[in-house]
Amino acid sequence: MKGTSRLGFTLVEILAALVLSAMLVSAVFGAMHQQWKLRTAGETQVERSQVVRGIVADLTEDLRAVRAMPVIAQSEETTPHNGSLWQKPTAIRASDLSEQLLNVARHFPATPLRFVGEAHWLVIETAQANSRFHPLAETSSSDESQQVLWFCSHGESLRVPVARERERLLRRSIACRDRSPGLTRVVLPADDRTRWGSDSLTLDDQHWFAIASEVSSLRFRYFDGREWHANWDSHTRRRLPNAVEVRVSISDIPQTFVIRLAQGT
Q1: Which pLDDT value is given to residue 85?
Q2: What is the per-residue pLDDT across 31-68, written as a single tens digit (0 to 9) for each?
Q3: What is the mean pLDDT of residues 127-135?
Q4: Is the pTM here over 0.90, yes or no?
Q5: Helices vs. strands in the chain: H and E counts, helices first
Q6: How many other β-carbons are positioned within 10 Å of the β-carbon of residue 210?
Q7: What is the distance between the alpha carbons of residues 245 and 150, in angstroms, rounded to a whole number?
Q8: How far is the C-alpha of 55 from the C-alpha of 61, rounded, in Å?
Q9: Cβ atoms 259, 243 nearer than 8 A
Q10: What pLDDT, on a 0 to 100 scale, did the predictor assign at position 102?
């Protein structure tokens, strides 16, 4: 009796081949998916690092350019009044006294803030314009000082100080509703504009710079050489901070860096 030869595969062999093929395809696609995830994560990390480096460079140039604090003489700090009136008694008529009282009540000239910061915003007076941004038309060549506000815009109005009248901070509201969200740099108008009757500042595009829309939150802290503070006013502290800690969240991932001030001594 002659033997019979098989010309095909059994059902078990076909099923086994299909299972092995499926396992092989699954392994290949799994490796490709993992590689894609690693590549995407790497690209995201590179993009995030680039954003952080840009923020650090912009803030560093502004903070290193903050005007140095003026040297205050001891006599100016301890003696409230210096003048001939306090050195030599004189007879003063009632009409002269009323005139002097009227002069005291007059409006004091507004002065820049120098350095005033809270946890969520920072206003500084820089000695020169930041080369990263286009100079404003109102900035003269002889004096390139600017008063700059840094904050994270979320669409709501922000009320910040824009100038100082002696001990009093002049605050104005800045509307952010129609502006791009994220980390924002604003060049505040000149001092004389803060005397407008309006309680809000109208800023055009040349004053407003959207730095990074990826930033969802921003926090500042200020170092005095010994400890960190949530706020800083160079007028009351009589000095600039030694360093500023900046904490930003990009895609809900916090990034923290510290910038030392050149004049923070």
Answers
A1: 38
A2: 777 777 666 666 667 777 888 888 999 999 999 989 88
A3: 75
A4: no
A5: 5, 13
A6: 13
A7: 13
A8: 10
A9: yes
A10: 44
> Largest alpha-carbon pair distance within the chain?
150
At residue 128, does pLDDT exceed 90? no
CA atoms within 13 Å, Cβ hemisphere of 126:
24
Dist CA 265 CA 253 (whole Å): 32
Q: Domain limits of the chain?
A: 12-68+107-265
Per-residue tokens: 255: 């990034």
Q: Are 72 and 238 in contact (CB under 8 A)?
A: yes
Q: Give the whole-angstrom CA distance, residue 217 versus residue 103.
A: 46
Closest CA to 231 of 113, 129, 126, 127: 113
Could you tell me the CA-to-CA distances from 8 to 5, 12, 13, 15, 22 in Å, in that order? 9, 12, 10, 13, 21
**Strands in 89-167 per DSSP E:** 115-117, 121-126, 146-153, 158-165
What DSSP letter does each residue of 208-221 carry, written as one string?
EEEEETTEEEEEEE
Query: Can you read off the two tokens belonging to residue 38?
Result: 């690693």
Burial of 56 (0-12, 13-18, 19+ CB in 10 A): middle
Nearest to 175 by CA among 188, 160, 197, 158: 158
DSSP structure class, residue 261: -
- HSE-CB at 98 with a 13 A cutoff on CA atoms is 3
- Whether residue 216 contacts residue 152, with contact meaning beta carbons closer than 8 Å, is answered with yes
Is residue 199's pLDDT more than 70? Answer: yes
CA 66 vs CA 17, 106, 127: distances in Å:
73, 30, 6
Beta pairing, strands 215-223 & 228-229: antiparallel
